[in-house]
Amino acid sequence: MPISGVVLKCTPGAATSVAERARLLPGVEVHAVLPDGQVVVVIEAGTVKQEAERAMHLQDIEGVISVQVAYHNFEDETTEQGGGYGIDEA
Question: What is the pTM for the complete model shown?
Answer without folding.
Answer: 0.79
